[in-house]
Amino acid sequence: MKVAIGFDHAGFPLKKVTLDAVRDAGHEPIDLGTNSADPVDFPDYSEKVGRAVQTGEAERGILVCGSGVGACIAANKMKGVFASICHDTYSAAQGVRHDDMNVLCLGGRVVGPELASALIKAFLEARYIGNEPGGERLARRVEKIHKMESGESIS
């Protein structure tokens, strides 16, 4: 699968680790920058990764900023982008399996290289199970999120 990847300056130190982890998992990274530790604005990279996911250029995305929070907030403003900050492997996989998460957000100042690699592996190996037998409750919940995203009431 193609994976769009974006970093701000605080996430840049994890860039090589992230690209390598995606390749090691058997996937193709799409490097959307940044290319140095010079200050940049994380929303720019959240938008680039989000657009790649929205258009189908990439099936999933990974964003790395200082804490992971800002990139996550920005990415979630984009329709069809289900981003979450994850600093444990359970959440990185479960977010995909149950919630159809398609963008993993990491904190470059929070996680080290080994944990980042493990999180990326867990995220990329996971598959959404809401479309499988027994996954109806998961699909129902995700559909409610889509409705909320479109401005519909779910109550």
CATH topology: Ribose 5-phosphate Isomerase B, Chain: A
| Overall 3D shape | globular
Can you list the strand order of the major beta sheet? Answer: 2-1-3-5-4
CATH level 4 superfamily: Sugar-phosphate isomerase, RpiB/LacA/LacB
Distance between the termini: 36 Å
Specify the CATH architecture: 3-Layer(aba) Sandwich
Task: Note the main sheet.
Answer: 5 strands, parallel
Order of helices and strands: EHEHEHEHEHH
Tell me, what is the CATH class?
A: Alpha Beta
Q: How helix-rich are the residues, as a percent range?
A: 40-55%
Sequence-ordered SSE layout with sheet pairings:
Blueprint: E1 2-7, H1 15-24, E2 28-31, H2 42-55, E3 60-65, H3 69-75, E4 83-85, H4 89-99, E5 103-107, H5 113-125, H6 136-149
Overview in brief:
The chain has 155 residues and is α/β, with parallel strands linked by helices.
Give an overview of the whole structure.
This protein has 155 residues and is of the alpha/beta class. It has a single domain (2-129), classed as Ribose 5-phosphate Isomerase B, Chain: A. The protein contains six helices and five strands; from the N terminus they run βαβαβαβαβαα. The chain has helices at residues 15-24, 42-55, 69-75, 89-99, 113-125, 136-149; strands at residues 2-7, 28-31, 60-65, 83-85, 103-107. It has a five-stranded parallel β-sheet with strand order 2-1-3-5-4, sandwiched between helices. α1 (15-24) links the parallel β1 and β2 (28-31). The longest helix is centred in the first third of the chain and has 14 residues, at 42-55. The chain is globular and about 45 Å long. The model has no long low-confidence stretch (mean pLDDT 97).
